[in-house]
Design a protein that fits this description.
Helix content: over 70%
Largest sheet: none
Order of helices and strands: HHHHHH
Shape: globular
Strand content: under 5%
Structural class: mainly alpha
Radius of gyration: 16 Å
Number of domains: 1
């Protein structure tokens, strides 16, 4: 497992130029991607205002995404693609979460009227791009169209938001 090649692959997926089928099958890499994504999510959520425990929210989000992926892949009869799909999903999500940290830090503790507009736009852009990348991953994992992949990605996004709100 060459970390440089793994990073290049995840970046290629973020640019919609590679898919989960190009990801090495490795349970160890899946565990690393899960830990990296969960850790960055804790940092990101720690910058958000409001009640809730960032570690609990990050762990719940990870569990929801894992279960969602398993159920979707199983429903399509493609459960054998679980490790590559989730490794790619969590690896790219870790990169996109890292990209969202600068605006989250800029917005942390700022009153709404003092919040920099660039930070809100940056976060919106990362959120939209995350859905696009997730749709791209599901398109390849499910051998379907980009539109169907985006539909699955939006369903995952909504499911994550609804379950995340349980901790508030």
């Amino acid at each position: 497992m060459d970390p440089y090649r793994i990073l290049l692959h995840w970046l290629a997926v973020c640019r919609l130029r590679a898919g989960p089928q190009d990801q090495a099958y490795s349970v160890n890499l899946l565990v690393i991607a899960l830990a990296l994504n969960t850790g960055l999510s804790v940092v990101f959520l720690g910058q958000a205002q409001g009640p809730g425990s960032p570690p609990a929210q990050a762990l719940l989000g990870t569990a929801v995404a894992l279960c969602f992926c398993y159920l979707v892949l199983r429903a399509w009869g493609l459960a054998n693609r679980f490790v590559q799909t989730t490794t790619t999903l969590f690896g790219t999500n870790a990169l996109l979460t890292a990209a969202a940290l600068p605006p989250a830090l800029a917005l942390a503790g700022a009153a709404p009227e003092q919040a920099p507009a660039w930070a809100a736009l940056w976060l919106l852009g990362v959120a939209v791009w995350t859905v696009a990348v997730t749709g791209h991953i599901f398109r390849h994992a499910l051998d379907t169209s980009m539109l169907a992949g985006l539909g699955v990605a939006i369903l995952l996004f909504i499911t994550s938001m609804l379950t995340g709100s349980l901790l508030h």
